[in-house]
Amino acid sequence: MNKGGVGDGPTAAAAAAAAQKQKNLLQRVDNDIGSIVDNFSFIVNVARVNDPPVRNSQEAFMMEVRASRMVQAADSLLKLVSELKQTAIFSGFASLNDHVEQRCEEFEQLAEKTERALSGVAEEAAASLKELESHYYSSAQRNSLICEDCELE
């Protein structure tokens, strides 16, 4: 499962796309909140009662327009929250997959390290066995046992 450098391109592209999406989302939040604040400020400023009835009706219409814009901005923020929830769910799966892949790579490295250690132990055991065999075959006790076996026959 060693990917080499194959996974580097899509990962970098995904990171760039995520950064761009985050920038766009923050810009949307700033725009929507700015719109709500501006429209609310306008409504508060216009909410004065004036004597001329024509002016009051114009201001009432402007207040309705601004209130409508505030509702649109609030609706946009609600959609943004929904989008963020979906992103969190799906990016949670993506990060979970990344974590699983990372753990797989760690276990593969651990398996390789264990295999190297086991082969080292096997080599040491083989060398020790060879040394023990050479001591046994060249020992005086073995030679005396062989000679006793020869006399018994």
Automatic annotation (TrEMBL):
InterPro entries xrefs: Med22
GO biological process assignments: regulation of transcription by RNA polymerase II
Superkingdom per UniProt: Eukaryota
Chief site of localization: nucleus
Coiled coil: 97-124
GO molecular function: transcription coregulator activity
Compartment annotation: Nucleus
Short name of one Pfam family: Med22
GO CC annotations on file: mediator complex
Signal peptide: none
Keyword terms of this UniProt record: Coiled coil, Nucleus, Transcription, Transcription regulation
Record PANTHER family: MEDIATOR OF RNA POLYMERASE II TRANSCRIPTION SUBUNIT 22 (PTHR12434)
Name the record gives this protein: Mediator of RNA polymerase II transcription subunit 22
Organism from which the protein derives: Cuscuta australis
